[in-house]
Specification:
The protein is mainly alpha-helical and 81 residues long. It contains five helices and two strands, in the order E-E-H-H-H-H-H. The chain has a domain at 1-55: BFD-like [2Fe-2S]-binding domain (Arc Repressor Mutant, subunit A, Orthogonal Bundle). The mean pLDDT is 82. The chain binds FE2/S2 (inorganic) cluster.
């Protein structure tokens, strides 16, 4: 499917670049996607994000209590039941 009509860029081309670890800005420089009329940007970003390893990630901050096992200590819960 053609995502960017202005530059005739397909979803396949965007996926290929995303799998290679290319950032969206790099994709724009390399392929020209979303650099003319801009109407394809949201679709192009969605396709890119599906395959990108650069996409958003969750960061979990472990406190000392978590590391010592207090957060997962079920014995206190079971003792009160
Ligand atoms: S459709 Fe992609 S820049 Fe116009």
């Amino acid at each position: 499917m053609i995502v960017c009509v202005c530059h005739r860029i397909s979803d396949h081309a965007i996926r290929q670049c995303a799998r290679q670890g290319m950032a969206f800005d790099d994709l724009q420089l390399e392929l020209g996607v979303a650099t003319q009329c801009g109407k394809c940007e949201s679709c192009a970003r969605s396709v890119w994000q599906e395959c990108s390893s650069v996409g958003p990630t969750a960061h979990i901050h472990m406190t000392q209590a978590h590391l010592e096992g207090c957060a997962w200590n079920t014995s206190q819960h079971l003792a009160s039941v």
